[in-house]
Amino acid sequence: VFGLSSVAQVVLGRGDFGQHLSINLGFGIGVTLGIHAAGGISGAHLNAAITLTHCILGNLPWRKLPAYLIGQFLGSFTAAATVFGLYYDALYDYTKGNFTVTGPTATASIFATYPAPYVSLLGAFFTEFTATVMLLLGILIIHDEKNNGALKGTQALLTGILVLGIGLGMGMNTGYAINPSRDLPPRVFTAIAGWGMDVFTAGHHWWWVPLTAPILGSLAGVFIHKLFIDFHNQPVPESGNEKGQPVVENS
Questions:
Q1: CB 3.0-4.6 Å disulfide test: which of 32, 56, 64, 146 passes with 233?
Q2: What residue ranges are annotated as transmembrane (predicted)?
Q3: CA dihedral 48, 53, 56, 58 (to 10 degrees)
Q4: Tens digits of per-residue pLDDT, 203-216?
């Protein structure tokens, strides 16, 4: 809701009610609050690529995968419907009732991601892959208690800042979906709500890239973290006060 509504405000407000930064802040805030809302209950699996990665690594039973994916799908679909209702009048004023995916008054990008006209499909795929690698690396580092992990209670905020950073640096080419659960359900909603099947054919049938590239990027992020960080981690001794530092006991 925070992310999509921030995009709607920038597009429908014709730049008078926000810019690229405000969109990234909206998604960062939404991720932070989502983690606080669901972290203690389900681990805050807001991303299907991350959930599937946990199943592949054996951190999550496969039998739980459908429940997580259904929850993510319903949450994202409902968010799109909520933003559609919130900005229904503005949408009609902006488009004169003609909902389009491309063109001067295109509005489908409010809800789902689409590649920029200058980006090749391969370049767009690589963008989504790389952005998701950075997302996974960041999340793993934030929660890495064997290394220099984040202070307890700050993980949600730092993850939101991580998403903000990805958007600020890697959002121009594709809108940084980095999450199948964030992209596909709103795309399905727009197909139903008046934009039609163009949402699946636009951008050289772009729709499948936000589903596959984040999954591969998530797995690659885990591999890179394992290879270059986790294998070299030394657990903090229980009697030590700092990693790699001798313990001095005072009588």
A1: 146
A2: 67-88, 118-142, 154-178, 205-224
A3: -100
A4: 999 999 999 999 99
